[in-house]
C-alpha cells in the first residue's frame, strides 16, 4: 500500500509523466522514421510526435479512478494511451482529413512512454507525510486479520475493547478512546476503521484528517489490498455506490470491442472441435449433444446457457463425456452464448436460475451481480481454481463485486493467466453452495 499523493506531488508526477511521454514518443518517432526510411521530426513528424505524446499524457494523467497499482496500472495506461490515440487521430482523419500518426509510432510510443513513466515514479518516490509511518487499526471484525496480513506496510496495532486473545499476533493498544494518545505516541500515517467503534465521532476523525493522518474504512481498504469488495461490512448506502464501476466509459467501450472480437475469433477457431465433439456425443450416446441450462443474465434477463452433455440419457457417464470433462471442454459451447451476446469472455460466472433466486433471498446484495453480463472466465473462479472444494458463496461474491468495479484490460489478462496456469490452493472454508449451482 502506498501513500496517496498530495497536491504538490500530483503536479510533480504529472510533469514526470509528460516528460516520459515526450521522451517515449520521441524515441518512437525516430524509430518509425528509420523503419520507413524517412527523416524523423520533419513535417509532419514533429506535429505528430507532440500531438501523440499529448494524447497519451492526458490518457495517463486524467483517469484518477484507477485503484489497481503496480504493473496492472501501467498495462491499463498502455491500452488507454493506444486507444485514445487511435480514436482521436483516426477520427480527425475521417472527419477533417488530418494526417494521423503511423500505427507503429502510436503503439511503440505508448509502450515506451508508460515504461519511462513507471521508472521515473519509482526513481522519485513520495516521502511519508510529516515523518509518519505505519497503520493503526481501530475496531476489530472478521475483515481485520486478512487485511492486516495482506498490508505491505507495518501495522502499529489495534484499538478495540475485545479480548487480546482475539487479535492474534496484532498488538493490542487499548480501547478506541485512546485514539488521540496512540496517534501522538506512534505517529501512524493512516487510521483504518473497522465498524463504528464507540466514542469516536465523525468530527474526531475529521480532526485527524486535518492533522495529516489518513482515515480509511476497512471495507474500502480491502478492495485495494485484498482485491475484493467486503460487502458484508458496508452500510446499504455505501453498498449502493461501492458496486458501481469506477472504470471510465472509454475503457469500458474498449473492453466491449476487444471482448467481442476475441469471442468471435474463438468461435471460429473452436468450430471444428465443437462440431466433432457434438457428433461423437450424438453417435455414442444416442441423445442430444448439448445441455440447455436457464441462467439469469444482464439485468436478470434469463437465457439458455449451452454446455456439452457428458452423461447418457439414462444418467450414466459416457466415455466421450469423461474425455471432454478431462480436457476441460465441457463449457466450450458457451462461446455460442458469447456469439449471441448473452455472455462475455470475462465476468461473474453464470448461475442456474433456481439457485440465483435462492441466493438473492438469502443475500439481498446478490442482485448487484447482474449489472454486468456473465462470463466464461471469472475473477472468483480464478482465485478458487483447483482448490478441490467448493468456495464460500459470500466470498465469491466479494470477488465478483471487485470485478464489476474494476473492469480493465489488465484485470482480464490477470484472470486469463490465472485460469490457464492454475495452481493448487487450499480450499476456503465456510458456508458453500452445491457444485450444481455454478457452471464449472
Strand portion, in percent? 5-15%
Give the N-to-C terminal Cα separation: 34 Å
Number of strands: 8
Which class of secondary structure composition applies to the elements?
A: alpha/beta
The helix fraction, in percent, is 40-55%
* Biggest sheet layout: 4 strands, parallel
Q: What Rg do the Cα atoms give?
A: 26 Å
Q: Tell me, rounded to a whole number, the average pLDDT.
A: 81
What is the number of independent domains? 3
As residue ranges, the low-confidence spans are 1-7, 386-390, 424-438
Spatially, the strands of the biggest sheet line up as 2-1-3-4
Shape: flat
Number of helices: 16
N to C succession of SSEs: HHHHEHEHEHEHHHEEHHEHEHHH
Word description of this protein:
With 440 residues, the protein is α/β, with parallel strands linked by helices. It has 3 domains: 7-123, no CATH class; 129-226, 3-Layer(aba) Sandwich (Rossmann fold), CATH 3.40.50; 249-437, no CATH class. 51% of the residues lie in helices and 8% in strands. The chain contains 16 helices and 8 strands. It has a 4-stranded parallel sheet. It starts with 6 loop residues before the first helix and ends in a 20-residue tail after the last helix.
